[in-house]
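Researcher: Last one for today. Full complex below.
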Amino acid sequence: GDVAVLVPAAGAGVRLGPGAPKALRPLAGEPLLVHAVRRIAAAPSVHTIVVAAPAADVGAVRQLLAPVAPVAVVAGGAERQASVAAALAAVPAGPEIVLVHDAARALTPPELVESVAEAVRAGHDAVVPVLPVVDTIKEVGAGEVVLGTVDRSALRAVQTPQGFRRSVLAAAHEAAGDPLTDDAGLVEKLGVPVVCVPGSEYALKVTRPFDLALAEHLLAIGA
Ligand code: CTP
Ligand code: MG
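Model: Here's the assembly. Have a good evening.
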């Protein structure tokens, strides 16, 4: 394998409601992070996995993942971007392709990890998996009054894993300013082209209780 995968898993999961940090909450009896790491490790290109865990749970996460796959675990930061930066700093010399993958996208198929890695290998510096937007999107102003309708055909919903030539991701994080919600956004600011590849509905981000229920159902039917 020539790929390192960084797994930001240090978020609280506020939108999921009260409880443990989201990556440690159970999905069909196992933490979301275990499901995510198992699928990442099943991708043949993957050489190294670095997890950014909640600072208080680094030891527990090491123990949790030891039987799942060989992983390094570091303490994450207050924002996702800081968690990714901490994981990136822990990647050993070797892998020249780095993927960043949310622990919360626990059911992401190994095939998506492979297809993103392959697109980077084929020469793209930055690659994001996307789905078309299905809802009509409106811009709203004060008082929830509609200002206009956005042309949906030009929009994409962006998932992870996002894939990068290692030097490009490192430069993007070095140049980073205010925290963004994804890594491709940092690369865009460098002026480096970001290319879309087809995403997967199974790569949904478990964010709200409804998503957890959906993920439980998808697992029950074989995801
Ligand atoms: N993440 C992280 N460090 C942070 C915040 C988020 O590593 N300081 C990770 C989360 O663990 C998750 C991914 O980034 O795997 C995507 O973030 P999100 O879905 O927003 O998760 P949370 O921040 O945990 O959820 P919420 O925003 O509802 O609190
Ligand atoms: Mg968050």
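The chain is about 30% helix and 25% strand. The longest strand covers residues 46-53.
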